[in-house]
Write a structure and sequence with these properties.
This protein is an all-alpha fold. The chain contains five helices and no strands.
């Protein structure tokens, strides 16, 4: 059996390192839970027209990170969502953009 060349081993080594780095980055991104990650998720839920889930996530931000800038933003979005819910269906559809 022929022994792998040095070039072949170096390429395999680089691919292995790249795969490990990519996997680590994906895991770090999926671990979530930070206020910024939660805020981004809640905003995405609003864009996807899922206000109930957005409210849950905003509430979690306020509970877990009450003194953060993200909690301030979450409170603002909760108030805006409450206004939309109380308003007409047309107002809720027209005001679905996040600022």
């Amino acid at each position: 059996m022929k022994k792998p060349s040095m070039r072949h081993r170096a390429g395999a080594y680089r691919r292995t390192i790249a795969a490990l780095l990519l996997g680590g980055a994906l895991l770090a991104g999926c671990s979530g839970g930070g206020a910024a990650d939660l805020l981004q998720t809640a905003e995405l839920e609003e864009v996807q027209n899922n206000p109930e889930h957005a409210r849950e996530i905003y509430g979690e931000i306020v509970r877990r990170y009450p003194d953060s800038a993200q909690a301030t933003k979450a409170r603002e979005r909760l108030a805006a969502l409450a206004e939309k819910k109380a308003g007409s269906p047309q107002g809720a559809a027209a005001g679905s953009r996040i600022q």
